[in-house]
Design goal:
By secondary structure, this protein is of the alpha/beta class. The chain is built from twelve helices and twelve strands. The strands form two sheets. The protein has an eight-stranded mixed beta sheet with strand order 6-7-8-3-9-10-12-11, with helices on both faces. A hairpin with a 4-residue loop joins strand 1 and strand 2.
Length: about 325
């Protein structure tokens, strides 16, 4: 990946996160870049390190639970300068959180405070830069209009439980937009929503990207969403990036056996009555630290190659290498 590109607004270099609990390696040597106006999707099974990677960008993980947070997370703060959030001061970090990066967290129902009206919760982010109550209320209503909530002048007085799941998610998006961020991190923004509402939320994010030229980092299990929305894809497995490519390249020419297995597991219409394909086994425990390919026990390719070639998978961990232009894969036999 081109970490030196002039359009990059975020550069992550060799990010590793180790938790104190038995030295769990949740994220291992992850590197990637995000361009201005780009949508970058992170996919993979639960427990692969996607959310921890995103939360680490501005140190939102409880620092008391971490034994090691290393690498670099460079976020662009003006035309020529970046700040490394992993070594930033508290004030610098607060400024980045206030104006550069915003989050849409999983399950809005649990992220919104149930005892405060939604207007007050959105206004909280605005009070940092503006003390005028009437202007703040106008801005809250404007944000609710942007996320297409009907009758926003009335909805500001609603509590979260008075709104549907889709409306709650729109409120979360409005809160994220309040600080006018350069980067929007959406961690499974369509979780627990029905298909129709999922489509509405994604169309809303598309409009936001188009109208504000915003960079979006989205975590999802939904590969249909990825192909329809993202520009590039990171495939994560066991805390590592195993493939990094453009959406077109990844779906037309997947190289890592794990990526191929994920794509094969997607149900498809028009194939008649066929058994749903699954990936046998589970993601290995992050307690297990081996200098071996972490996917080998679930890999169809591993089970077909000869014993001599299997030694490569069992004796050393593959590196993330560029197989073709801007298409990176972590596999000895890609």
């Amino acid at each position: 990946m081109n970490l030196s590109g002039k359009d990059n607004i975020l550069k992550v270099k060799n990010l590793s996160v180790i938790f104190k609990d038995n030295n769990n390696v949740a994220v291992n040597d992850v590197s990637f870049a995000l361009k201005k106006g780009e949508v970058l999707a992170i996919v993979g099974e639960s427990g692969c390190g996607k959310s921890v990677t995103c939360l680490s960008l501005v140190k939102l993980i409880d620092q008391n639970s971490i034994s090691e947070l290393s690498g670099e997370v460079l976020i662009k703060i003006d035309n020529n300068n970046f700040i490394d959030t992993l070594v930033a001061t508290k004030k610098e970090l607060r400024d980045v959180r206030n104006s550069k990066v915003s989050y849409i967290f999983q399950e809005a129902a649990t992220s919104l405070n149930p005892v405060f009206k939604i207007g007050d919760q959105i206004a909280e982010a605005l009070k940092i830069t503006n003390k005028n109550h009437s202007i703040i209320e106008e801005e809250v209503i404007r944000l609710l209009n942007i996320v297409k909530i009907p009758e926003p002048d009335k909805k500001i007085y609603c509590y979260p439980h008075e709104l549907s799941g889709g409306m709650q998610q729109r409120v979360m998006i409005a809160m994220a937009l309040a600080s006018k961020p350069d980067i929007l991190v959406a961690d499974e923004p369509t979780t627990a929503l029905d298909v129709t509402i999922q489509s509405q939320i994604i169309n809303l994010l598309k409009d936001i990207k188009k109208n504000h030229n915003m960079s979006i980092l989205i975590v999802t299990h939904n590969l249909g969403l990825v192909v329809d929305f993202a520009d590039r894809v990171l495939v994560m497995y066991a805390g590592e990036i195993v493939e990094n490519a453009s959406v077109v390249e990844l779906f037309n020419n997947p190289l890592h056996p794990y990526t191929k297995s994920l794509l094969n597991a997607v149900p498809r219409l028009g194939r008649g009555k066929v058994a749903l394909k699954t990936i046998p086994g589970v993601v290995p425990s992050i307690l297990i630290k081996e200098n071996k390919c972490s996917f080998r026990k679930r890999c169809e390719l591993y089970n077909t190659i000869n014993i001599a070639n299997r030694l490569k998978c069992n004796s050393r961990k593959p590196s993330l290498n560029e197989n073709s232009e801007e298409h990176y894969v972590r596999c000895h036999f890609a």
